[in-house]
Amino acid sequence: MISSCRSCNAVAKAFKPWAASCFPAARTITGRAGRVVHLPGCMCPVCISGASPGKRISERDLSVAATPSPENRGVVFMGPNEVEVKPIGFPKLELDSTNSPVVSERQKRKCQHGAIMKVVTTNICGSDQHMVRGRTSLPGGYMVLGHEITGEVIDTGSDVEFIKKGDLCSVPFNIACGRCPACKRGDTGVCLFVNPARAGAAYGYVDMGGWVGGQAEYVMVPYADFNLLKFPDKDQAMEKIADLTLLSDIFPTGFHGAVTAGVGPGSMVYVAGAGPVGLACAASCNLLGAACVIVGDMIPERLEQARSFGCETIDVRAEGTLEDKIHAITGSPTVDAAVDCVGFEARAAAASGGEQPAQVLNDCMGIVREGGQIGIPGLYVTEDPGAVDDAAKFGNLSMRMGLGWSKSASMHTGQCPVMKYHRPLMQAILYDKVQIAKAVNATVISLDDAAKGYKDFDKGAAAKFVLDPHGMTGLAQAI
What average pLDDT does the structure give for the chain? Predict the structure, then answer.
């Protein structure tokens, strides 16, 4: 909801004379607990003064806790549907997010356990798009985006023992300490020691600890010995870099969705969503031995991409129920396993339908068999200022839990613990057991084309855009 300007705590403290006034030219979104996010073009006195993240996009300066440097550039979220490649600070073996406008992610710590990496590839993710569309609590003008990183180590802290300069490594998007109870039991997606606000952290993502994102030329990776997956042969890795770059997130995430849905030899599977994670999940189902993988989506080009490696497809916009469409393919209206690779920006199945955040969750409960399992790697958030109703703004969705309960269906949610899967999936790539880059149509572009990549991806391009900041892959193409 666009509203007149009202005071958040920071504004009230710094600009008391203005706090009680409202201005016709103000543009804000009111989030949880009355917190105000100032949108691009906001003309309240605070924004005009330059004190708020709602400053005009063309006038904003990077306020991440580092002095911009000509030696490093990164993709910065500037406001809804606006990203720019800007000079950013060269990484240090420390984190200082105390200047973040997001109070929950402010922290400061030394990182002698970390490594500084020259980024070889870094991917645009659908989770980034949620932020760029303005669907999270993130204000613009300070966040360096990007959590899917592959890079070469150029420096290490004094506490790093095993990772060496020159190592080419995959970086899990989860930041994990390796020391807390969660990490010790393998739940690296919900590490307890890396985010002051809650369990779990990631690079370049709102409310995830303030760690600087990796859609950049250089980035710092903490707890390097624990987090980094070193490729055994650097030359071989560069030959397969379009596949290996997907180990940082979407290949393990898609695989995790399939595993938590119970996919195995002979399974009949429905995958909701033919974006990169959905396609990675479908390829993972094949790798796990599924008998039939059905992928549903609304975008014909993405469905065609799913068919390119043997999937059955359903255009969910077509007339008829999802059960009937599955029956037409398999002879049964139900499947053994269903995977939600869409998340909270789901839309109604009808061609004219609007956004319905629980649509895919309810679809999955409707088509999974009795005793079946549902994997949910699709993202659901605790705060969505652009949601269709007040309940959904805080993650409260209209789910048919009674239907799922009556079927004894199991549901599995949450971030993928990348480290549980990335080494075996690396081996599957290196030994040619899976062609994951072809499955998701990995498309390498330059860092300078990042904004174009975001726009094309948002329009539904059947591609996974991979940024090559230094031209090291030799694969970059113009878009």
Answer: 87
CA 329 – CA 296 distance, rounded (Å):
12
Tens digit of each residue's pLDDT (9 = 90 or more) over 323-359: 999 999 999 999 999 999 999 888 887 655 688 889 9
Residue at 244: amino acid letter: L
Closest listed residue to residue 292, CA positions, set 329, 254, 253? 329
Q: Does residue 291 have a pLDDT over 70?
A: yes
CB atoms within 10 A of CB 169: 24
Measured at the CA of 452, the angle between CA 444 and CA 170, to 5 degrees, comes to 35
Distance CA 197, CA 122 (A): 26
Q: HSE (CB half, 13 Å, CA atoms) of 466?
A: 33
Two structure tokens written together for 133: 């569309």
- HEC letters along the chain: CEECCCCCHHHHHHCHHHHCCCCCCCCEEECHHHCEEECCCCCCHHHHHCCCCCCCHHHCCCCCCCCCEEEEEEEEEEECCEEEEEEECCCCCEEECCCCCCHHHCCEEECCCCEEEEEEEEECCHHHHHHHCCCCCCCCCCEECCCEEEEEEEEECCCCCCCCCCCEEEECCECCCCCCHHHHCCCHHHCCCCCCCCCCCEECCCCCCCECCCCECEEEECCHHHHCEECCCHHHHHHCHHHHHHHHCHHHHHHHHHHHCCCCCCCEEEEECCCHHHHHHHHHHHHCCCCEEEEEECCHHHHHHHHCCCCEEEECCCCCCHHHHHHHHHCCCCEEEEEECCCCCCECCCCCCCECCCHHHHHHHHHEEEEEEEEECCCCCCCCCCCCCCCHHHCCCCCCHHHHHHCCCEEEECCCCHHHCHHHHHHHHHCCCCCHHHHHCEEEEEHHHHHHHHHHHHCCCCCEEEEECCCCCCCCCCC
Q: Look at the alpha carbons of 281, 252, 340, 365 in this order and tell me if their dihedral is positive or negative.
A: positive
User: Phi and psi dihedrals of 377, rounded to 5?
Assistant: -80, -15
pTM of the entire structure?
0.86
Q: Which of 263, 255, 411, 258 is nearest to 336 (CA)?
A: 263
**pLDDT per residue over 188-216, tens digit each?**
999 999 999 999 999 999 889 999 999 99
Distance (Å, rounded) from C-alpha 279 to C-alpha 236?
25
What is the phi/psi pair of residue 269, to 5°? -130, 140
